[in-house]
Amino acid sequence: MATIKDVSKLAGVSVATVSRYLNKNGYVSKEAELAIAEVIEKLNYRPNTIARSLAGKKTATVGLMVPDILNPFFPELARAIEDAANTYGYTVMLCNTDNDPAKEQRYIETLLHKQVDGIIISSYTIQPGHLSGLQKAGIPVVLLDNVFSSDSVVSLTVENKRGGELAAEHLLELGCRKIAHICGPLSITSSRDRTAGFEAVSAGTDWFTPSLIGYSDFTVSGGYRTMKKLLADHPDLDGVFASNDLMAAGALKALSEAGRCVPEDVKVIGFDGIGLEMLSPELSTIAQPIYELGKTAMDVLVALIGKETGIETDQVFPVTLTAKQSTVG
Amino acid sequence: MATIKDVSKLAGVSVATVSRYLNKNGYVSKEAELAIAEVIEKLNYRPNTIARSLAGKKTATVGLMVPDILNPFFPELARAIEDAANTYGYTVMLCNTDNDPAKEQRYIETLLHKQVDGIIISSYTIQPGHLSGLQKAGIPVVLLDNVFSSDSVVSLTVENKRGGELAAEHLLELGCRKIAHICGPLSITSSRDRTAGFEAVSAGTDWFTPSLIGYSDFTVSGGYRTMKKLLADHPDLDGVFASNDLMAAGALKALSEAGRCVPEDVKVIGFDGIGLEMLSPELSTIAQPIYELGKTAMDVLVALIGKETGIETDQVFPVTLTAKQSTVG
DNA sequence: AAGTTATGTGTAACCGATTACACATAGTTT
DNA sequence: AAACTATGTGTAATCGGTTACACATAACTT
Fold first, then answer.
1. A53 closest-nt by C1' vs CA
2. Sheet with B267-272, side-by-side order of all strands
């Protein structure tokens, strides 16, 4: 593989001039430019990224840490981030953390020593203290769905509480008079907020009782089990709001097995807006702008890497009601 | 961040000795060892991966190219590969190619210049010629689901044809007497093989006719549309084999909308074995050992990177029938 | 006792880029 | 005409490691 030296020799200039040409900084004469361009073409020369990183301190690589790429929410996010990264000339390193703080720490260390230019973290378990190594090294971080303000850490979230309200309101408007709620892990802020939104709307109604809230874990099987229990306790329920789409899908399955028709007997709405087009009936949901979240995360990260100032440290994105067959038939 | 020089100075030895200590090659005395270990601990020193790569030609990074991480097959693969990579101390760069040869080429170039140690490619469109740059640079490649023998390129596939046979046999054994087939893109070898397996079993029967085969595209909506058409042409069909699980899920949806009960009226089986636990009824499938495929891909890649010899260039993995509600109730 | 072999260490070249600095020349100001 | 400024280029240090090679000493061989 050709090096910058080969190019400089063949083009009859110094490596400095070639480097200036490549990076478009400093002066380079028209003649030199042409000569270099020609040689580069001829040798099919591409600068060695590793050497460039060592000298220039930039790797054009970002880390993406997600709990588990198997959860369909994260491929959507990853895809958006990868697309955006691509347009900026960045490459993405994928890290599955399993929400295991030890694994998270190991990956942060690894990414730190691989000198990624920035990191996007989606994690329920991360704590401000875990990021101190990155802060010290001046590596920018964008946090998804986990807010803790701090310099050089930007957080992106959605209107989780408003989403919970929207879901409850939607079911009420459709005539539901006994709405159950499958809530996610209480350790997760956004999960708590969604439930809070639901409660804000339901708590005042005559049908509401705390046992209509079933606690679950954001998985399909968890939603399935919790739905079964709710059905046993409240056979007359006519609406269900699950704090994420996977649990909602599990609820649909439990309802179908129990012989309930959706949406005729029971209306179901989820949260997230992941593309679960295989479901029948199709799932109504409170959709997050997942692609936009991912893209913005990357945009912001690139801005931080470029030491731009005036970046909002906390951005909250709107959610939108997407009514499908599971509520409106 | 501390460098090897800092360590060598504080420990009172040369950088060479520290390097030998770090890489466990060459001789290092007990005293030196202890002194170095102590200093490393004290400075919390970690070797700079970039510098190490530049000098040592190894980046401990591998590229993973997949068509689209949004297709649930690929997160499963990615997860397996990432887990395996992790145990070897490798990091994974994720690339979505969209089966676009130009994008593929760009990514190969990028990975080449980022000097990844190896690449795992899952692609329907890749051609032997596209890999010549990698071959020339001596970067090992493992190909998934796309066979073309060549040195330093290992291919991993599954018994696609046998899977098609298994699916057809399974439906026949369950009493189906008119089985439709939703086949995938004919441009994809494994897709053709699955269909060939189905045909091998069905072609001899009295009910078989070519119009029972519907052509589709490996997506949920494609499976849905094709199922509708098949139902219109053959209202009396009582079994469906789809060449992948996504199309099978689409078929289930179409059947449900058409008022057909699965598996009572129609039995459905897919192919792949991706975890579609949200479906009701749960989907029977011809399962590929996806996790094992991914893990093996990484194992083989590491072996190739280590210049091990005697690696089988073509490995074919078995498939297994997983009977669930969509065929056996 | 001389010749090997094993052990241990340091110097300096090298990987392939970037960039500070020195220097030269041409074009503008005063 | 002297003094600047803008343009253009090359030398060499630097990034932070690895490793070939030279050299020294200790431990075995015969």
1. C17
2. B213-215, B179-183, B239-242, B267-272, B284-287, B320-322
- Are the Cβ atoms of A93 and B95 closer than 8 angstroms? no
Bases in strand D with any atom closer than 7 Å to a protein CB: 7-12, 14-21
| CA–C1' B28–D24 (A) | 15
CA gap A60, B27 in Å, rounded: 37
Say whether A278 and B53 touch across the interface (CB within 8 A).
no
Per-residue pLDDT at B151? 60
In this structure, is the CB of residue B29 within 7 Å of any atom belonging to strand C?
Answer: yes
CA–CA separation, B173 vs B177, rounded Å? Answer: 10
pLDDT of residue A135: 80
Q: Which chain B residues are closer than 8 Å to A257 by Cβ?
A: 280
Q: What is the pLDDT of residue A87?
A: 93
Test B61 with A246 for CB contact under 8 angstroms.
no
Name the nt closest to B17 by C-alpha to C1'. Answer: C9
The torsion angles phi and psi of A140, rounded to 5 degrees, stand at -65, 150
* A220 interaction partners in chain B (CB closer than 8 Å): 277-278
Whether the CB-CB separation of B302 and B158 falls below 8 Å is answered with: no
Backbone angles phi, psi at B271, to 5 degrees: -150, 135
Instruction: From first to last of the 329 residues of chain B, give the pLDDT tens digit.
Output: 889 999 999 999 999 999 999 999 889 999 899 999 999 999 999 999 999 999 977 899 999 999 999 999 999 999 999 999 999 999 999 999 999 999 999 999 889 888 899 999 999 888 777 888 788 788 899 999 876 656 668 999 999 999 999 999 999 999 999 999 999 999 899 999 999 999 999 998 999 999 999 999 999 999 999 999 999 999 999 999 999 999 999 999 999 999 999 999 999 999 999 989 999 999 999 999 999 999 999 999 999 998 888 888 889 999 999 999 999 98
Chain B interface mutation, best of A94, A109, A116, A253, highest count of B Cβ atoms under 10 Å: A94
The pLDDT of residue B18 is: 94
DSSP H or E stretch at residue B242: strand B239-242
Q: CB under 8 Å, gap of 24 or more: what pairs does A256-263 form?
A: A256/B280, A257/B280, A258/A228, A258/A231, A260/A231, A262/A325, A262/A326, A263/A174, A263/A325, A263/A326, A263/A327, A263/A328, A263/A329
- For residue A27, give the nucleotide whose C1' atom is nearest its CA: D8
Give A-chain residues touching B92 at CB under 8 angstroms.
Answer: 93-94
Cβ separation of B276 and A278 shorter than 8 Å?
A: yes
* Residue B237 CB partners (closer than 8 Å, separation 6+): B178, B179, B180, B212, B230, B231, B266
What pLDDT is recorded for position B109?
87
Strand C–CB B16 distance below 7 A: yes
The pLDDT score that the predictor gives to residue B272 is 97
Domains and CATH numbers, chain B: 4-47 (1.10.260.40), 61-158+290-317 (3.40.50.2300), 160-288+322-328 (3.40.50.2300)
The three-state secondary structure class of A220 is helix
pLDDT at B149: 56
3-state class (DSSP) for residue B269? strand
Provide the angle, in degrees to the nearest 10, between the axes of the packed helices B30-43 and B15-23: 90
Residues of A in contact with B82 (CB under 8 A): 69, 94-96
Q: pLDDT at residue A258 above 70? A: yes
